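Box 4.2: Ligand-aware structure prediction
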Amino acid sequence: MSKPYAPGAAQIHNPQVTNVAVPFVDLKQQYASIKTEVDAAIARVIENTSFILGPEVRAFEAAFAEYVGARACIAVNSGTAALQLALMAAGVGAGDEVIVPSFTFFATAEAVSVLGATPVFVDVDPVSYTITAAAFERAITPHTRAVIPVHLYGQPADLDPILELARKHNLHVIEDAAQAHGAEYKDKRVGALGSAGCFSFYPSKNLGAYGEAGAVVTNDEQLATRLRLLRDHGSTSKYAHAIVGYNFRMEEIQAAVLNVKLPHLKSWNDARWARAARYHEALSDSNLVLPREMDYARHVYHVYAVQSEHRDDLQKRLTAAGVQTGVHYPIPIHLQPAYASLGYKRGDLPVTEALAERVLSMPMFPELSDEQLDRVAAAITGN
Ligand SMILES: Cc1ncc(COP(=O)(O)O)c(C=O)c1O
């Protein structure tokens, strides 16, 4: 199935409306602003005929590690691969439990399951929409091996108490930073604050490739060595395989695009933040619950989701006004058919379940103009 614009394969309301006045995401505008550099970078890769794990990937790994403030970056071919690799490198396998929020994109839990481990779903904080130390603590059992805080929508989870608890119980903290490139927790960029951090460079992400791509960052050299091995068939040299791994290698074309884009990330994130501030002001008198940046956080607004008691009506109204919106995410993971065998039922995670019925993501991208944004706000408030 193709994923249209969606962050985390978001459900985009995509009616038969051709007059889209305000798209959910507009990747064309961004491309136009960097076209010369991107085209040259892609052409360079083709000229060099080095297509996988070459000089562009090495340059990107160095640059992204520095950006995040991590010792090492291991470039891979999706955010899902990054999660799977990080968990495997941390020793997660059959019989283990990994604590994950239910309010996230499916891949967070899926990465646990494909390793033969069991995701243990917990609720999120009703304000930050991220996992709390209290929920984490309640879910710990003798089988727990790791926890995955998801920095959902671009807002970091409150990591310090989570890290402290993980240290006490000797557990790995694997950050899912797929939506949080450049987001800060207490003035530090997220990603390398736990054992490892996983990023997606899916095209519509704050830092997006022109195809599938992802990365794991870590400060742990031993973990980095294992991650590099696992990414490339456990291979130590050509046709010598120390361990069984995967083919999760990043393509040079994707790295070349990311090398062009990374220097712009800060200004794009600042633009998103300014868009969020304008939404906030325009909607402050509405009856919607607006996203709140936590005191400890610099939010990067990958998604700007409001809460409405009449979400579906609101979405229809916006669609009629030519405004594309999305729902991240309409079905909590603990209630997905794929996890029916785990036996969760409605009512188990009330915050997540309420959010799934109430959240609606507004158009959000750095190039969203004041006029477009004001049009969204007017369609909401009727002014
Ligand atoms: C929170 C979260 N985790 C994991 C992923 C998986 O990343 P990818 O689509 O690059 O595999 C995504 C995005 O799609 C995501 O939003």
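In the box above, the bound molecule is pyridoxal-5'-phosphate. Confidence is low (pLDDT under 50) at residues 1-17.
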